[in-house]
Structure formats: structure tokens, C-alpha cells
Amino acid sequence: RARAPTTRARVATIDRASRRLASSRVASRASRGAAAKAREVDGASLGDVLGASTRVEAIEVSGSATRARWIANDGALAKKPPIDARTGEESTSAVPELRRIFLPSGFPESVSSDYVAWLKWHLLSLLFRDVLEVLTAQSLLVALGMGSTPGALPLTAAAKWVLKDGVGSIATLLAGSFGGQKYDEDPKRWWGVTNALEDVARAIELATPVAPALFLPLAASATFVRCAALTGRGSLINGSFMQHFGRKSNLGDIRAKLEVQGRWLALVGLPVGIQVFQVVSTSAAGFVERGDEASAFAVAFGAYGTVITAHCLSCWQSARALKFDILNRYRLLKLADAFVDAENDELLDVDALGDIEGVYAPRVTPSTPTFGADPSELSEDWNSFIEALRLANTRSYVLGFDPKRSSSPSAMLLNRASPRDTFAAALACQKLQRLASSATTAEARRAQDTIAMRVNAYAYADARVLEFEAAMIRSGWRVDFVQLGVAPTFVVDIAASS
Predict the structure, then answer these.
(1) 412, 400 contact by CB (below 8 A)
(2) With a cut of 50, which residues of the chain have pLDDT below it?
């Protein structure tokens, strides 16, 4: 009975992929035909159509864009611009070359569907970030007494500069050691958090001219926060984001184009930042001369606060635009909850669940099972832990009730668990949540037959896991891997007592 829905799901998935492929081929052929006004011929029939009376053009394409035409020129090969579909003449537009410089080869087919939505906000955040870098560099120099004094940096100031950077190594070590798997499991949230922390660091640096005597502790604190933030930010953009965006094993190309985009924005941000600093400094100095220090503070706070706020909002919007199709604990439990609740195979797709997930929405609520539990989150004592292992039998996960969270259902994952075992664990957890929800208090729940509830939940997951997996495939989710983050997995070692 469970095989039929799975077979239908696979057929539907294959049909959908075939339709997309056929559609993309038709669109690609139409684009090339309109641009070059040349016949598209099947490679197998080239020998039949080529002859002395035929005109041949080799059209160079990148994704859906036409880049150039190769034609005959007195017996030699000649490279010509593409034909503009609107005018029918050779294109003089610089757009194809700009696309080649700033966008990955094969764009947009070579990147994920959310790449453009993310990129526009990311580039805007980079611009504000570059402006902030200029402002904070100027502020640090002013705090060191170098704001308007030409000449070499004094030895004491140079020593302070080196010392404040020394703490950055410690911050990088800590962030890399304790944050790695957390970044992978929830990249949207950590993208927002790391960028917000970088803004905190910039704000501290902007405050150094107010208390130049505290330059070293302020600058060192800012460097510590910023280096920790940059470690997480770099890990995300070079790791999770590149894996998500790339669709044709083109991670290096996508990353290189982001560098190009960032460098161009830095050239824009430098003069803008210098101008903002000069205007704010001049305005604030005028208020100070008139004895109105409150207005001077308001001008600086308003200008710098606006830039920081704009950067934060841009980063939040870029994170919000991301729609990951890989399952993590939050997404898997949400899908399992919907499947158990509706008792059918209609699940949220990647875009819909991505909107619900948001950036800062809570990932764990009081009703969320403890997924990826350790033994202390599975049972109250050793005897109940052994009983839970017995009930699991040969399965690769163990159900229990978390005594730390008012006996909320929990699942401990064994090291041998496959993605399908993990799907079954999520289904069983959510089914157990339904069975236990009739007990309104922890005392009433303990009075019920928790063993029977777990047996029921195991049986439900065993019977429905294939349907659940097929439903996720139909909704566009990847089912080859589950990102568990820092959730522990276990090997149960059983030996005879001596």
C-alpha cells in the first residue's frame, strides 16, 4: 500500500522535471533564433542540411543570453556581436559584457531561483558597509589624535593599533570553534546575527573619538566583536550560501563574481564615506564652537545611525530572500507536523516554508519536540532510558519524553540513521506530540500509558514514512540529506555483564 504513492510521486517528479527541461529548451531555442535569425538544426542532421547554398552561424550562448556570433569572412573565422532582437541589427549594447563581468556564467540558469532577490539586498548592504568602514577608520584616527595632524603615526599610537588587532585572533578562534555547525543548520538567522554584530563593532569604533583615553579597550572590544562576526559571515558566504546558489558546480565562479561586485561597490563607498564624515565633522564642529554639544551629538548620532540602520535592514532583507531547499531540524519538523495534522501528502513548498521560517522567528516553541536529544532529554532515569531503547527495537532512533521541557516528546538519533530514518523520527515525534497533547498537565501525562503512545507513534512512522518522503519530493525538497547542526548522534554499545 505504501509503494503506490511513492511510485506516483517519483513519476510526477520525473514528469515535472521533463516539462521544465523541455520548456527551457524551447525558450533557449526561441531566444537564439530571434537574436541571430538563424535556423536551429539538430546535430544529427547537420550533414543533411549543410551545403554550398547554406549560410552558417555559430552562435555563442551563456545560459539564455547570446554573447557573440561566429561567421565566415572571406574564408576566415570572424567573431561578430549578437543581433539585437528589437532592431534586427548588430547589438552595440554593453550589457552582454557587463553580464560576463558581474554575473556567473550561464546566469540565470546556473544559480538558484532566489539568487537575484538575495543579491540586490546584499549589494545594497555592501554599499552601506563600505561607507561604515570609511567612517570608522576616520573615527579611529581622530581618537588617536591623527584627525588633522600630518606626519607619521606616533609609536604609542602604533602600539595601540597593533594591540587592539591582537584580540581578533582570539575572537576568530572562538567563533570558528563553537559556531561552525550552527551556521550550517540555520544560515538565514546567523547571516542576520553576524551582520548585526558587525554593526555593533562599527558603532563602538565610531564612539572612540568621544573617549580617546579609552581608545585601546574600545577599539579592542570592537575588533573582538567584528572578527567573530566576520568569521561567521565568511563561513556562510563561502560555504552554505555558495552550495545553495550553485546549480552547475560553479561555486568558484559565483564567489569570484561576488568579489568583483564588492570591489566595484567599495570604489563607490569610499568617496561617499569620506563625504559623509566631512559633512558630519564640519556640522558637529560648528555646534561645538557655539557651545551646543547636544546638537553636535544629535547630528553625528543621526547620520551614523542612519547608515547603520540601513545596513541592518539590507542584511535582514537579503536573509529573508533566501529559500533553502535542504532540510534542517526546523523545516523537517514543520513538514512532519503538517503531514500528521492534515493526514495527507500536501506539504508546504520551499518558498512558502521559507517565508514562515523568516530570519528571527523562533525555531523552538513549547510544542516543538526535542529532536536530536541526548539521554537526559529522553528519560528521567537509567531504567526508563533502557525501556526506551527496548521499545525502539531495531530502529535508528529512540522516542521518549524530555523531563527538561515538561515531558515534551523527544527523539534520540543513532549514528547509523539514514535520511529516511530521520524522516521517520520526525513523523514519530509529531505523532507522539498529538497523542500526548490530550493530557493537559505533566501529572496527567505520566498517568497515561506512555509506552502504548510510543508504540503507536513508531507504528505510524513505519507505515507513513515513504508517503511523507514522496510528499516532500513533490513539494521541491531535497531528501538526500538532513542538516542536523549540533544535534548529537549516538552508538549504543551493548556488552554482556561480567
Answers:
(1) yes
(2) 1-44, 148-153, 155, 447
| CA–CA dist 46, 64 (Å, integer) | 23
C-alpha cell, 387: 525501556
pLDDT recorded at residue 52: 53
Q: Are 305 and 206 in contact (CB under 8 A)?
A: no
Cell of 272: 561617499
Taking alpha carbons only, the member of 431, 371, 428 closest to residue 405 is 371
User: What are residue 410's DSSP bridge partners?
Assistant: 370, 400
- First-to-last C-alpha distance (Å) of the chain: 47
Closest CA to 237 of 330, 348, 129, 351: 129
Closest by CA position to 399, among listed 454, 351, 357: 454
- Sign, CA dihedral 234-238-239-242, equals positive
Lookup result for grid cell 535556423: 39
Beta bridge partners of 76: 73
The 10 Å Cβ neighbour count of residue 393 is 8
Which amino acid is it at 179? Answer: G
Give the CA distances from residue 391 to residues 198, 373, 396, in Å, rounded to whole numbers and listed in that order.
49, 16, 12
Lookup: cell for 444: 496527567
Q: How far apart are CA 400 and CA 369, in angstroms?
A: 10
Q: Using CA atoms, how far apart are residues 349 and 479, in angstroms rounded to an integer?
A: 13
Enter the C-alpha cell of residue 182. Answer: 550552527
Q: Reduced to 3 states, what is the DSSP secondary structure of residue 444?
A: helix
Three cell numbers written together for 297? 551629538
Instruction: Find the helix or strand (DSSP H, E) in which 489 lies.
Output: strand 489-490
Read off the C-alpha cell for 23.
520548456
Residue 226: is it exposed, middle or buried by C-beta count within 10 angstroms (0-12/13-18/19+)?
A: buried
Cα–Cα distances in angstroms (integers) from residue 491 to residues 261, 382, 411, in the given order: 47, 16, 14
pLDDT at 174: 85
Question: For the segment 448-477, what is each residue's pLDDT rounded down to a tens digit?
Answer: 578 999 999 999 999 999 999 999 999 999
